[in-house]
Specification:
Elements: E1 31-35, E2 38-41, H1 42-50, H2 61-82, H3 87-112, H4 116-127, E3 133-143, H5 146-157, H6 162-169, E4 180-185, H7 191-198, E5 209-211, E6 214-226, H8 231-256
Antiparallel strand pairs: 1-2, 3-4, 3-6, 5-6
Helix pairs in contact: 1-2, 3-8, 4-8, 5-6
């Protein structure tokens, strides 16, 4: 807000409602102030409050109320002095009105579009028959040559801990933590690595094998079936999808009831969207 239409200057003081109107007597249409013949209502004060930046929340409501009244009075004085709005302001007001009314309808559609039964049906359709996903927890060591990989495998076969050998010889980034790759699913690794690891039983160790990165020896530490998401896990996602679908249906219905014209191809130069000089 500009200096002359703000209220948090050094002279701001706490104020109380001096009209004698108590909260239960006040409606959004209650007149709070007047500027000439123009009335400023409690509804306008409330909307102005919702548009304040978050940092204003630190001030007492008494200061906010008094300041908002002053702000709207000052804005009305300036608006009255403006005369007829400029083309830029007129088109902005048209767009703002259209946007606000559209948002109100969208909010109404979204609020009534989704029931618990709708969510359950959408969840069942997507996840009830979903295939189980197997995940693997593996470790590996990476070296440059087949001979180095074979020597590492011999050490493991002779009883050395896989993690210790990986720490000793692996050139990969997981070497320092014993080669542990964590959990991964199908498609996460290059095919040669995935095929070698998924063929193992838990605790098994592969023979040396080659990928584009070098020579590996890998072990399967564990495997599991990934649990599918619960309804609560995907509630927000499904709600948004159902709301979007409801809005689309409503828009299609509204469009079917109206005669709509659109520009013919090539009728307007697309670069005109930047021609702000047309507003002057």
């Amino acid at each position: 807000m500009l200096k002359h239409v703000t209220f948090l200057g050094a002279t701001a003081v706490a104020a109380t409602l001096s009209t004698g109107a108590f909260a239960q007597d006040v409606t959004a249409d209650t007149v709070v102030a007047t500027v000439g013949e123009t009335e400023i209502t409690m509804g306008e004060i409330i909307i102005a409050r919702t548009q304040l930046p978050p940092q204003y929340a630190q001030f007492p409501v008494e200061v906010l109320f008094d300041g908002l009244v002053d702000q709207l009075i000052q804005q009305q004085l300036l608006a009255d002095a403006a005369g007829e709005p400029s083309a830029r302001t007129s088109f902005t007001l048209l767009n703002e009105r259209r946007s606000l009314l559209a948002a109100e309808v969208i909010t109404e559609i979204a609020a009534n579009a989704v029931t618990e039964a709708d969510l359950q049906a959408a969840y069942d359709e997507r996840f009830a028959n979903a295939e189980e996903i197997e995940e693997f927890n593996a470790a590996h060591l990476l070296v440059e040559t087949q001979e180095e990989a074979a020597a590492a495998k011999t050490r493991i076969d002779e009883g050395a801990a896989f993690a210790d050998v990986a720490r000793d010889v692996s050139t990969g980034p997981t070497g320092p933590n014993g080669g542990n790759l964590g959990w991964f699913g199908a498609g996460a690794m290059v095919p040669e690595f995935e095929n070698a690891v998924t063929a193992l039983e838990v605790g098994g160790v592969t023979e040396p094998f080659e990928t584009q990165f070098g020579w590996h020896v890998a072990t399967l530490l564990d495997k599991r079936i990934q649990a599918g998401p619960t309804l609560d896990d995907v509630r927000r996602e499904l709600t948004a999808e159902l709301q979007e679908a409801a809005i689309t249906v409503r828009l299609d219905a509204l469009a079917a009831e109206e005669t709509i014209t659109k520009p013919e191809p090539g009728q307007f130069d697309p670069s005109l969207i930047d021609a702000t000089n047309l507003l002057d």
